[in-house]
UniProtKB/TrEMBL annotation:
It comes from the Bacteria. InterPro entries: Calcineurin-like_PHP, Metallo-depent_PP-like, Metallophosphoesterase_sf. Pfam families: Metallophos (PF00149). This is Metallophosphoesterase. Residues 50-220 form the Calcineurin-like phosphoesterase domain. Keywords: Hydrolase, Metal-binding. It comes from Alkalibacterium iburiense. Transmembrane segments: none annotated.
Length: 287
Protein backbone atom coordinates (compact mmCIF):
# COMPACT_ATOMS: atom_id res chain seq x y z
CA UNK A 1 0.00 0.00 0.00
CA UNK A 2 2.74 2.35 1.07
CA UNK A 3 4.75 1.55 -2.04
CA UNK A 4 1.81 2.21 -4.36
CA UNK A 5 1.21 5.60 -2.66
CA UNK A 6 4.84 6.49 -3.15
CA UNK A 7 4.68 5.37 -6.76
CA UNK A 8 1.54 7.49 -7.39
CA UNK A 9 3.21 10.52 -5.85
CA UNK A 10 6.29 9.96 -7.98
CA UNK A 11 4.15 9.61 -11.10
CA UNK A 12 2.25 12.84 -10.35
CA UNK A 13 5.47 14.74 -9.68
CA UNK A 14 7.01 13.40 -12.87
CA UNK A 15 3.95 14.47 -14.88
CA UNK A 16 3.92 17.94 -13.28
CA UNK A 17 7.62 18.37 -13.98
CA UNK A 18 7.06 17.18 -17.55
CA UNK A 19 4.23 19.67 -18.14
CA UNK A 20 6.25 22.51 -16.62
CA UNK A 21 9.27 21.70 -18.79
CA UNK A 22 7.10 21.35 -21.92
CA UNK A 23 5.36 24.68 -21.19
CA UNK A 24 8.65 26.47 -20.65
CA UNK A 25 10.17 24.96 -23.79
CA UNK A 26 7.13 25.81 -25.94
CA UNK A 27 7.24 29.47 -24.92
CA UNK A 28 10.97 30.13 -24.70
CA UNK A 29 12.82 27.96 -27.19
CA UNK A 30 13.05 29.75 -30.56
CA UNK A 31 12.47 27.62 -33.65
CA UNK A 32 14.07 28.82 -36.88
CA UNK A 33 11.79 28.27 -39.91
CA UNK A 34 13.67 28.14 -43.21
CA UNK A 35 11.99 28.94 -46.53
CA UNK A 36 13.31 29.53 -49.99
CA UNK A 37 11.57 31.11 -52.95
CA UNK A 38 12.91 30.28 -56.37
CA UNK A 39 11.76 32.64 -59.11
CA UNK A 40 13.41 33.57 -62.37
CA UNK A 41 12.03 37.08 -61.91
CA UNK A 42 14.32 37.63 -58.92
CA UNK A 43 17.33 39.63 -60.15
CA UNK A 44 20.39 37.37 -60.47
CA UNK A 45 22.50 39.42 -58.06
CA UNK A 46 19.95 38.57 -55.32
CA UNK A 47 20.56 34.81 -55.63
CA UNK A 48 21.09 33.49 -52.06
CA UNK A 49 19.97 36.82 -50.55
CA UNK A 50 18.88 36.07 -46.98
CA UNK A 51 16.02 37.81 -45.20
CA UNK A 52 15.24 37.34 -41.51
CA UNK A 53 11.76 38.24 -40.24
CA UNK A 54 11.08 39.18 -36.62
CA UNK A 55 7.38 39.40 -35.82
CA UNK A 56 5.17 39.85 -32.74
CA UNK A 57 7.97 40.04 -30.18
CA UNK A 58 5.59 41.67 -27.67
CA UNK A 59 8.64 42.82 -25.64
CA UNK A 60 9.60 39.25 -24.81
CA UNK A 61 13.13 38.91 -23.47
CA UNK A 62 14.93 35.87 -24.87
CA UNK A 63 18.10 36.78 -22.90
CA UNK A 64 20.33 37.14 -25.93
CA UNK A 65 19.11 34.00 -27.70
CA UNK A 66 17.10 35.95 -30.30
CA UNK A 67 20.11 38.08 -31.18
CA UNK A 68 22.36 35.01 -31.44
CA UNK A 69 19.89 33.10 -33.61
CA UNK A 70 19.48 36.08 -35.99
CA UNK A 71 23.25 36.53 -36.14
CA UNK A 72 23.72 32.82 -36.95
CA UNK A 73 21.70 33.31 -40.16
CA UNK A 74 24.09 36.02 -41.41
CA UNK A 75 21.12 37.88 -42.99
CA UNK A 76 21.34 40.60 -45.62
CA UNK A 77 18.37 42.41 -44.08
CA UNK A 78 16.04 42.06 -41.10
CA UNK A 79 12.32 42.79 -41.39
CA UNK A 80 10.19 43.57 -38.33
CA UNK A 81 6.49 43.09 -39.05
CA UNK A 82 4.81 44.74 -36.07
CA UNK A 83 3.91 44.15 -32.42
CA UNK A 84 7.46 44.75 -31.30
CA UNK A 85 5.90 45.96 -28.06
CA UNK A 86 2.73 44.80 -26.30
CA UNK A 87 -0.04 47.23 -25.46
CA UNK A 88 0.19 46.13 -21.81
CA UNK A 89 4.00 45.89 -21.70
CA UNK A 90 5.28 48.98 -23.46
CA UNK A 91 8.88 48.79 -22.39
CA UNK A 92 10.24 51.09 -25.11
CA UNK A 93 13.80 51.02 -23.76
CA UNK A 94 13.87 47.23 -24.00
CA UNK A 95 12.35 47.22 -27.50
CA UNK A 96 14.69 49.89 -28.86
CA UNK A 97 17.72 48.19 -27.30
CA UNK A 98 16.71 44.86 -28.87
CA UNK A 99 16.39 46.48 -32.31
CA UNK A 100 19.66 48.38 -31.88
CA UNK A 101 21.41 45.05 -31.37
CA UNK A 102 19.76 43.74 -34.58
CA UNK A 103 21.08 46.74 -36.54
CA UNK A 104 24.61 45.61 -35.65
CA UNK A 105 23.85 42.45 -37.63
CA UNK A 106 22.06 43.91 -40.72
CA UNK A 107 19.88 46.84 -41.84
CA UNK A 108 16.45 46.76 -40.19
CA UNK A 109 13.12 47.61 -41.88
CA UNK A 110 9.95 47.98 -39.82
CA UNK A 111 6.16 48.30 -40.00
CA UNK A 112 3.76 48.80 -37.09
CA UNK A 113 1.32 46.30 -35.59
CA UNK A 114 -1.95 46.82 -33.76
CA UNK A 115 -0.23 46.71 -30.35
CA UNK A 116 2.05 49.68 -31.13
CA UNK A 117 -1.00 51.72 -32.09
CA UNK A 118 -3.17 50.55 -29.16
CA UNK A 119 -0.34 51.28 -26.70
CA UNK A 120 -0.63 55.02 -27.36
CA UNK A 121 3.18 55.14 -27.50
CA UNK A 122 3.70 54.58 -31.19
CA UNK A 123 4.88 58.11 -31.87
CA UNK A 124 7.63 57.85 -29.23
CA UNK A 125 8.64 54.39 -30.40
CA UNK A 126 8.70 55.50 -34.01
CA UNK A 127 10.95 58.48 -33.20
CA UNK A 128 13.33 56.29 -31.23
CA UNK A 129 13.50 53.69 -34.02
CA UNK A 130 14.24 56.51 -36.50
CA UNK A 131 17.03 57.80 -34.27
CA UNK A 132 18.85 54.46 -34.22
CA UNK A 133 18.62 54.07 -38.01
CA UNK A 134 15.62 51.77 -38.51
CA UNK A 135 13.89 52.29 -41.85
CA UNK A 136 10.19 52.71 -41.01
CA UNK A 137 8.10 51.53 -43.96
CA UNK A 138 4.64 52.42 -42.61
CA UNK A 139 2.81 53.34 -45.83
CA UNK A 140 6.16 53.93 -47.46
CA UNK A 141 8.53 52.21 -49.87
CA UNK A 142 12.22 51.71 -50.45
CA UNK A 143 14.42 49.53 -52.59
CA UNK A 144 17.21 47.05 -52.09
CA UNK A 145 20.05 47.52 -54.53
CA UNK A 146 22.78 45.12 -55.54
CA UNK A 147 25.18 45.77 -58.40
CA UNK A 148 22.66 47.92 -60.24
CA UNK A 149 19.71 45.55 -59.79
CA UNK A 150 16.81 46.28 -57.46
CA UNK A 151 14.05 44.67 -55.46
CA UNK A 152 11.26 46.86 -54.12
CA UNK A 153 10.19 46.96 -50.48
CA UNK A 154 6.79 48.39 -49.62
CA UNK A 155 5.20 48.57 -46.19
CA UNK A 156 1.70 48.98 -44.82
CA UNK A 157 0.99 50.65 -41.49
CA UNK A 158 -1.35 48.73 -39.21
CA UNK A 159 -5.02 49.34 -40.13
CA UNK A 160 -5.68 50.46 -36.54
CA UNK A 161 -4.13 53.75 -37.66
CA UNK A 162 -6.93 54.35 -40.19
CA UNK A 163 -9.20 57.25 -39.31
CA UNK A 164 -13.01 57.11 -39.51
CA UNK A 165 -12.88 59.91 -42.09
CA UNK A 166 -10.57 57.89 -44.35
CA UNK A 167 -12.81 54.83 -44.12
CA UNK A 168 -16.04 56.79 -44.78
CA UNK A 169 -14.49 58.64 -47.70
CA UNK A 170 -13.41 55.43 -49.47
CA UNK A 171 -16.19 53.07 -48.33
CA UNK A 172 -14.45 50.36 -46.29
CA UNK A 173 -11.16 49.87 -44.46
CA UNK A 174 -10.24 47.15 -46.99
CA UNK A 175 -10.68 49.60 -49.86
CA UNK A 176 -8.42 52.17 -48.19
CA UNK A 177 -5.73 49.51 -47.69
CA UNK A 178 -6.14 48.31 -51.28
CA UNK A 179 -5.75 51.83 -52.67
CA UNK A 180 -2.81 52.63 -50.39
CA UNK A 181 -1.01 49.47 -51.44
CA UNK A 182 -1.67 50.07 -55.14
CA UNK A 183 -0.25 53.60 -54.86
CA UNK A 184 2.85 52.40 -53.00
CA UNK A 185 3.54 49.68 -55.58
CA UNK A 186 3.15 52.18 -58.42
CA UNK A 187 5.41 54.73 -56.75
CA UNK A 188 8.09 52.14 -55.93
CA UNK A 189 8.24 51.27 -59.65
CA UNK A 190 10.12 48.00 -59.11
CA UNK A 191 9.56 44.79 -61.09
CA UNK A 192 9.97 42.46 -58.12
CA UNK A 193 8.33 43.67 -54.91
CA UNK A 194 8.32 42.51 -51.28
CA UNK A 195 5.63 43.66 -48.84
CA UNK A 196 5.90 44.11 -45.07
CA UNK A 197 2.53 44.08 -43.34
CA UNK A 198 1.45 42.97 -39.88
CA UNK A 199 -1.83 41.36 -40.94
CA UNK A 200 -1.94 37.87 -42.44
CA UNK A 201 -5.73 37.98 -42.80
CA UNK A 202 -5.46 40.55 -45.61
CA UNK A 203 -3.99 37.98 -48.03
CA UNK A 204 -6.80 38.54 -50.57
CA UNK A 205 -5.80 42.20 -50.85
CA UNK A 206 -2.10 41.40 -51.27
CA UNK A 207 -2.94 38.74 -53.89
CA UNK A 208 -5.03 41.23 -55.86
CA UNK A 209 -1.89 43.35 -56.44
CA UNK A 210 1.47 42.65 -58.08
CA UNK A 211 3.17 41.97 -54.72
CA UNK A 212 5.51 38.99 -55.14
CA UNK A 213 6.27 38.14 -51.51
CA UNK A 214 4.42 39.37 -48.41
CA UNK A 215 5.84 39.02 -44.89
CA UNK A 216 3.13 39.01 -42.21
CA UNK A 217 2.39 37.91 -38.63
CA UNK A 218 -0.32 38.84 -36.09
CA UNK A 219 -1.84 35.32 -35.97
CA UNK A 220 0.59 33.92 -33.34
CA UNK A 221 0.37 30.57 -35.11
CA UNK A 222 -3.18 30.18 -33.82
CA UNK A 223 -1.70 30.08 -30.27
CA UNK A 224 -2.43 26.34 -29.80
CA UNK A 225 -1.55 24.15 -32.77
CA UNK A 226 -3.38 20.86 -33.13
CA UNK A 227 -2.84 17.98 -35.53
CA UNK A 228 -4.87 18.26 -38.76
CA UNK A 229 -6.61 21.57 -37.94
CA UNK A 230 -3.38 23.51 -37.21
CA UNK A 231 -4.04 26.85 -35.45
CA UNK A 232 -6.89 27.03 -32.93
CA UNK A 233 -7.53 30.75 -32.62
CA UNK A 234 -6.01 33.99 -33.80
CA UNK A 235 -6.96 37.65 -33.44
CA UNK A 236 -8.90 39.02 -36.46
CA UNK A 237 -9.47 35.52 -37.87
CA UNK A 238 -11.21 33.88 -34.88
CA UNK A 239 -11.38 30.11 -34.38
CA UNK A 240 -9.71 27.78 -36.91
CA UNK A 241 -7.95 30.62 -38.73
CA UNK A 242 -6.88 30.21 -42.35
CA UNK A 243 -3.48 31.91 -42.22
CA UNK A 244 -1.34 31.01 -39.20
CA UNK A 245 2.07 29.69 -40.19
CA UNK A 246 4.23 29.09 -43.22
CA UNK A 247 4.04 29.84 -46.91
CA UNK A 248 0.77 30.52 -48.77
CA UNK A 249 0.30 31.23 -52.46
CA UNK A 250 -2.56 32.97 -54.21
CA UNK A 251 -2.68 34.48 -57.66
CA UNK A 252 1.12 34.67 -57.96
CA UNK A 253 1.60 36.31 -54.56
CA UNK A 254 3.44 34.27 -51.92
CA UNK A 255 2.81 35.13 -48.29
CA UNK A 256 4.98 34.06 -45.38
CA UNK A 257 3.19 34.07 -42.03
CA UNK A 258 5.42 34.12 -38.98
CA UNK A 259 3.98 32.47 -35.88
CA UNK A 260 5.61 35.31 -33.95
CA UNK A 261 7.95 35.23 -30.98
CA UNK A 262 6.06 36.51 -27.94
CA UNK A 263 2.61 36.33 -26.43
CA UNK A 264 -0.09 38.88 -25.78
CA UNK A 265 -3.19 38.45 -23.56
CA UNK A 266 -3.15 34.65 -23.74
CA UNK A 267 0.27 33.80 -22.29
CA UNK A 268 0.69 30.19 -23.40
CA UNK A 269 1.77 28.56 -26.66
CA UNK A 270 1.21 24.87 -27.22
CA UNK A 271 2.87 22.93 -30.03
CA UNK A 272 3.79 26.38 -31.34
CA UNK A 273 7.31 27.46 -30.43
CA UNK A 274 8.44 31.08 -30.93
CA UNK A 275 9.17 31.48 -34.63
CA UNK A 276 12.12 33.12 -36.37
CA UNK A 277 11.60 33.19 -40.13
CA UNK A 278 14.50 32.97 -42.58
CA UNK A 279 13.86 33.31 -46.32
CA UNK A 280 16.50 32.74 -48.96
CA UNK A 281 15.87 34.06 -52.46
CA UNK A 282 16.86 31.84 -55.37
CA UNK A 283 16.96 32.63 -59.03
CA UNK A 284 16.05 29.83 -61.42
CA UNK A 285 18.97 28.44 -63.31
CA UNK A 286 21.64 29.59 -60.84
CA UNK A 287 23.22 26.97 -58.60
FE1 LIG B 1 -0.90 41.82 -33.79
Amino acid sequence: MKISKKLSLLLILTLLFGFAFYGYYQNNSIEVSYYSINDERIPETFHDYTIVQVSDLHTKDFKGDLHDKISDQDPDIILITGDLIDRNRTDLDFAVQAVEEMIDIAPVYYVSGNHEIASGEYEDLSQELDSIGVRNLDNDFDSLEKEGETIGLVGLEDPLLLTQDEIEETGTAEKVIEETLATLIEESGTDYTILLSHRAELMDIYASTSIDIAFTGHAHGGQIRLPFIEGLYSPSQGFFPKYTSGLYEENGTQMIVSRGLGNSIFPVRINNRPDLVVLTLKTNGIE
